Amino acid sequence: MLDRIVAHDADSLEAEATLPDQSPVFDGHFPGFPILPGVLMIECMAQAGGWLMLARQGFARMPLLAKVGQAKLRGMLRPGALIRVGAKLTHDGSGYAVLSGRIDSDGQMAAEAEYTLRTLPFPDAALAALVRGRGTELGLPA
Amino acid sequence: MSSPDRSTFERIAVIIAETANVDPAKITPTAHVINDLGIDSLDFLDIVFAIDKEFGIKVPVEDWTEQVNAGRAPAEKFFIIGPLAERIDELVQAKPV
């Protein structure tokens, strides 16, 4: 769901995305009043955290969203909106990581959450290569 | 939350009770985290996170799990509360000063 990674270091990452003008998601959520569903806001934050962990661990492990806590969906995101999605590492544990995330758009915070990612070995080399390639496209070092 | 003047077992028991909503009376040194307390893997992650924070360590859950799965160590060494407290003490003692 993210278009590009604009900044990252060992403990944080910032990404941007432009929401599509048209999408089946918007058709139903809601007819005549399209807004990004809250679960997709959370997915955006989780993806930013996932890229952070992939970069941090050299694409050796696959991050999966395991838990979302303290999520606050503060604003509505409309089609075409430019969003900035941040992830900050709170704790890098054994096989898991705890992070905080936020989404800003048009100078306002749209969402924030704390969440936990499990990190597991990739199930196969093909998926690992695919993810690494996508990370490079987004702006992470290979 | 727990305090450093309590024993490791007591501190872990408080964490488990508060994090996984377990009846404190069930948390004994011989209780198995999964079999006796009904803690699932996701709740166990929360408990490990709380232990990591409380003791300033990184509990090597993956290594422990690998040891058990490979038959190199019994599950009781890590997943019964009494021995778990001993493992935590070892990790705390091994922390760099």
Q: How would you characterize this protein structure?
A:
- The complex is a heterodimer of chains A (142) and B (97).
- Helix content of chain A is 27%, strand content 42%.
- Chain A contains 3 helices and 6 strands; from the N terminus they run ββααββββα.
- Chain A has helices at residues 24-28, 38-56, 125-138; strands at 4-8, 12-18, 61-73, 82-92, 96-105, 108-121.
- Chain A has a 6-stranded antiparallel sheet, covered by helices on one side.
- In chain A, strand 4 and strand 5 form a beta hairpin.
- The radius of gyration of chain A is 15 Å and the shape is globular.
- Chain B has 97 residues and is mainly alpha-helical.
- Chain B has a single domain, classed as ACP-like (Non-ribosomal Peptide Synthetase Peptidyl Carrier Protein, Chain A), CATH 1.10.1200.
- In chain B, 56% of the residues lie in helices and 0% in strands.
- Chain B has 5 helices and no strands.
- The A-B interface holds A 66-67, 91-96, 98, 116, 118 and B 42, 45-46, 48-49, 52-53, 58-63.
